[in-house]
């Protein structure tokens, strides 16, 4: 009796399959975002870094799109579109133009060398998994496993972005680090079911990033300092620090 | 008439709308004189509306909330914004004369001033955590733009540093906000309710404590960056010293308070839940750290605005410590200290602004003997520094005294560190003050053309508060202190 009912409304196998499909695909995208964050950590050319960042933005847009489909939340498509158009195309192109104009495509001055940075990155990911999975253990049952693990991945992306910001001296790669950090935030926000204002927040962030990029242009850090190496900025601090 | 009675019942939306409309208007006004006048008028109007809040009923709408806590912040904020706009009108006229700013710069500056005021008011009055976050982000962006206004190398460096650290701070705060939503979602359901402040407070006891703790750590680090708490204070001295002086006054007197307000909101959420980690020790540690660090850093300053920027870090540390200590007395002391610090520090920045303009420099070594060359200005600065250093009879003395006594009652060992930090900072300020105010005056003896009224009003309030606090104000602060837990 039970069985016939279930067949009439779609087989239990189907339901299980689609539930696990939602889970697996969302996992795939979130995991890919973390992996791409690692890819960014060891790029030593700005153009390559920009390309990897664009790739992360594309994956983010897919991930957000998938959440929009799975949660039946059409407004999230807007966020996905912003990620795709603005972060995967417009910003990388603008930054690439800037890098070409300033002639700094070979420079990614790192403060810490690649090896220790990667090790620190692994430690940060482990940390965020431990913290998040432990802290959320009581929140939900199996239904929320996706949200919980999404959160752990999102924190990893956030921390890796932060790591990139502190291990790079170059202003352009710091901006990229910040944008990748923000990708993690969008991942967390879209993973939280029914969270309000996600679209507004992603728009607010886009404005912020656009201003940063315009800021680099307008302030013409190159003209003033001959380099976008922020270490050079420090010399103006002189004795007043 | 209908409009007027509506205003009396609920002035909150108008309070946010006035600065927003003024910003658009000021962006369109080409004359800087008219612009400066309109800026003062708009700030005055906002302050008058904020006073209306005192008599208005407490509301908890879907967008805005008016409660006893945020009224204190809104009234203080709009008042200091008003006096600063007044000071700014005289200040920028001088900057225009010396050619450091152009009329176009000023048009931008006035519009941004109003955007900043509107964003801060929205952040304080918003009932939605997401809106509050967006408003604080907007406030940060406008101040970044204003810090970079002079376009000198140092100003650009300061703006960039502020931008990067501020962005990281607000990013962490957003992560914390998302976590709070995830904590609330199983209890209050999906959708907007999970971000409405009054709903969250009602259900605080049902939330999962573990995730709420993690959320608070992110929120404290994120908004703490904007408060200027060590170790995340690095942006603050640069931003204060390189921007126009009215902006230094607004940053120290207002924006730091708004970020602190956000921290307090979340602290009271944790306080409402018995199972969570006590938020106090974290705040106390950051507060004491800031106090000690800033105390030692004060000795080595060579730039006058940087000196008082470090003094702001010191005082935000004391305030964070007081709120971290918790309990009715310490919270009361924290609120009072915050109010006194805002008034005193902006008065000091007004005096410093005048002093830098007549001397044509910000270097401490070149600003000497101010009481001889400009008696009124010099003695006002002395009064301000004496007040901020915590000497009686200023209001700061009273609030610091309350912080110290409540600390001795609750945590004697921490109180010792607190007193040590206070003494270190006191010594530094006295050493610097004697050089600035007394001795042979340095060159630059032109009289100050701008008005001393804003500075005088602030100092009068601070010293009056040290001698007499109206019982209504005490009752109010006491009530708010009890709510904060």
Automatic annotation (TrEMBL), chain A:
<feature type="transmembrane region" description="Helical">
    <location>
        <begin position="75"/>
        <end position="96"/>
    </location>
</feature>
<dbReference type="InterPro" id="IPR038730">
    <property type="entry name" value="HyfE-like"/>
</dbReference>
<keyword id="KW-0812">Transmembrane</keyword>
<feature type="transmembrane region" description="Helical">
    <location>
        <begin position="175"/>
        <end position="192"/>
    </location>
</feature>
<feature type="transmembrane region" description="Helical">
    <location>
        <begin position="151"/>
        <end position="168"/>
    </location>
</feature>
<feature type="transmembrane region" description="Helical">
    <location>
        <begin position="108"/>
        <end position="131"/>
    </location>
</feature>
<keyword id="KW-0472">Membrane</keyword>
<protein>
    <submittedName>
        <fullName>Hydrogenase-4 component E</fullName>
        <ecNumber>1.-.-.-</ecNumber>
    </submittedName>
</protein>
<keyword id="KW-1133">Transmembrane helix</keyword>
<dbReference type="GO" id="GO:0016491">
    <property type="term" value="F:oxidoreductase activity"/>
</dbReference>
<feature type="transmembrane region" description="Helical">
    <location>
        <begin position="49"/>
        <end position="69"/>
    </location>
</feature>
<dbReference type="GO" id="GO:0005886">
    <property type="term" value="C:plasma membrane"/>
</dbReference>
<feature type="transmembrane region" description="Helical">
    <location>
        <begin position="20"/>
        <end position="42"/>
    </location>
</feature>
<keyword id="KW-1003">Cell membrane</keyword>
<feature type="transmembrane region" description="Helical">
    <location>
        <begin position="198"/>
        <end position="219"/>
    </location>
</feature>
<keyword id="KW-0560">Oxidoreductase</keyword>
From TrEMBL, chain B:
<dbReference type="GO" id="GO:0008137">
    <property type="term" value="F:NADH dehydrogenase (ubiquinone) activity"/>
</dbReference>
<dbReference type="GO" id="GO:0042773">
    <property type="term" value="P:ATP synthesis coupled electron transport"/>
</dbReference>
<keyword id="KW-1133">Transmembrane helix</keyword>
<feature type="transmembrane region" description="Helical">
    <location>
        <begin position="131"/>
        <end position="150"/>
    </location>
</feature>
<feature type="transmembrane region" description="Helical">
    <location>
        <begin position="71"/>
        <end position="94"/>
    </location>
</feature>
<feature type="transmembrane region" description="Helical">
    <location>
        <begin position="247"/>
        <end position="266"/>
    </location>
</feature>
<feature type="domain" description="NADH:quinone oxidoreductase/Mrp antiporter transmembrane">
    <location>
        <begin position="126"/>
        <end position="421"/>
    </location>
</feature>
<keyword id="KW-0472">Membrane</keyword>
<dbReference type="InterPro" id="IPR052175">
    <property type="entry name" value="ComplexI-like_HydComp"/>
</dbReference>
<dbReference type="InterPro" id="IPR003918">
    <property type="entry name" value="NADH_UbQ_OxRdtase"/>
</dbReference>
<feature type="transmembrane region" description="Helical">
    <location>
        <begin position="319"/>
        <end position="340"/>
    </location>
</feature>
<dbReference type="InterPro" id="IPR001750">
    <property type="entry name" value="ND/Mrp_TM"/>
</dbReference>
<keyword id="KW-0812">Transmembrane</keyword>
<keyword id="KW-0560">Oxidoreductase</keyword>
<dbReference type="GO" id="GO:0005886">
    <property type="term" value="C:plasma membrane"/>
</dbReference>
<keyword id="KW-1003">Cell membrane</keyword>
<feature type="transmembrane region" description="Helical">
    <location>
        <begin position="413"/>
        <end position="438"/>
    </location>
</feature>
<feature type="transmembrane region" description="Helical">
    <location>
        <begin position="36"/>
        <end position="59"/>
    </location>
</feature>
<feature type="transmembrane region" description="Helical">
    <location>
        <begin position="210"/>
        <end position="235"/>
    </location>
</feature>
<feature type="transmembrane region" description="Helical">
    <location>
        <begin position="162"/>
        <end position="184"/>
    </location>
</feature>
<feature type="transmembrane region" description="Helical">
    <location>
        <begin position="12"/>
        <end position="29"/>
    </location>
</feature>
<dbReference type="Pfam" id="PF00361">
    <property type="entry name" value="Proton_antipo_M"/>
</dbReference>
